[in-house]
Specification:
By secondary structure, the chain is α/β, with parallel strands linked by helices. The chain has a 7-stranded parallel β-sheet. Helix 1 links the parallel strand 1 and strand 2. It is globular.
Length: about 230
C-alpha cells in the first residue's frame, strides 16, 4: 500500500518538543514502513522518517497557528491539494491529519480519504466536519467519538500510536505522573482526584495554556513546586 499523510503546517514529524499529532504520525508511519508499505508525508516541516517528503509551500518555521496566519495556512493547504490532485493515482489512501482546509478542498478527489480527528468536539470542529456526513473519519477513543454528532461517518477509532522501544522500568517510582498542556479538557483535576483516592503523590508537568484553570483549580492543590515559577503560553 502507498499511504499519504497530510500534515498541518504547524506539525512536525516527529516534534522536537510538544506535538501530539506529529509524534503519533511518526510512530504510525514508521510502523507502516517496517511492514513494507510506502509512505509519503505532505508537510511544511523537516521530518526524520526517511520516507518521501513533499513540501509544496516550502518550510514554514512558525509552530503556532496564530503565528502562521490564516492566509499562509490557506496557501499551504491549497498547494498540497494541487499537488495531490496531480498525483493522487499514486496513493491507495490519503490520511488527512485534522486540517479542515485540505479536508474541504480534497472532497472531490477519487482516492479514498480518511480524516483523523485528534481533538475533542470543540464547536469549531463540529461546525466544520459535521456538515459532511459522506466523508470518512476516525477518532482516537470511544469517549471522543461520543462527543461528536451521530451523523458523522466515523469508521472507528484507533488509539494514538506509541513506541514499544521504551519498555516500562522495573524500578518504578511510588508516584503518579501527568504530562500534558495544562487546561481543563486535559483533565489534570481528574488526575488529582485519582491521586487522592489511591493515596499516591502526583507530579504534574506541562505548559500552562489556561491560566484561570491553573490558578483557580490546580494551583491550590499543589504542595511543592519542582520547576520554579509557573509559566504559560
Amino acid at each position: 500500500m502507498h499511504v499519504a499523510f497530510v500534515m498541518r503546517p504547524n506539525d512536525q514529524v516527529p516534534p522536537t518538543g510538544c506535538g501530539g499529532i506529529g509524534r503519533m504520525v511518526y510512530y504510525l508511519a514508521r510502523g507502516l514502513m517496517q511492514r513494507g508499505h510506502n509512505v509519503t508525508v505532505y508537510t511544511a516541516k523537516s521530518t526524520m522518517l526517511g520516507c518521501e517528503t513533499i513540501m509544496p509551500a516550502g518550510i514554514i518555521e512558525q509552530k503556532h497557528e496564530k503565528d502562521i496566519g490564516e492566509t499562509r495556512w490557506a496557501a499551504y493547504a491549497g498547494r498540497v491539494f494541487e499537488h495531490i490532485n496531480r498525483t493522487e493515482s499514486a496513493y491507495d489512501i490519503i490520511n488527512n491529519q485534522y486540517d479542515p482546509l485540505f479536508f474541504i478542498m480534497g472532497r472531490h478527489l477519487q482516492t479514498p480519504r480518511l480524516t483523523t480527528l485528534a481533538s475533542a468536539a470543540y464547536d469549531k470542529n463540529v461546525q466544520c466536519f459535521s456538515v459532511y456526513p459522506d466523508e470518512f473519519f476516525s477518532g482516537v477513543s470511544k469517549a471522543q467519538l461520543s462527543q461528536y454528532p451521530t451523523n458523522m461517518n466515523f469508521v472507528g477509532y484507533v488509539h494514538n500510536a506509541v513506541s514499544d522501544d521504551r519498555p516500562f522500568s522495573a524500578k518504578r517510582g511510588a508516584y503518579l505522573f501527568s504530562v500534558s498542556r495544562i487546561r481543563h479538557d486535559k483533565g489534570q483535576h481528574h488526575a488529582i482526584e485519582v491521586s487522592r483516592r489511591v493515596n499516591m503523590p502526583l507530579i504534574i508537568a506541562g505548559t500552562i495554556v489556561d491560566a484561570d484553570y491553573f490558578y483557580n483549580v490546580i494551583n491550590p492543590c499543589i504542595t511543592s513546586n519542582l520547576s520554579g515559577p509557573a509559566r504559560w503560553q
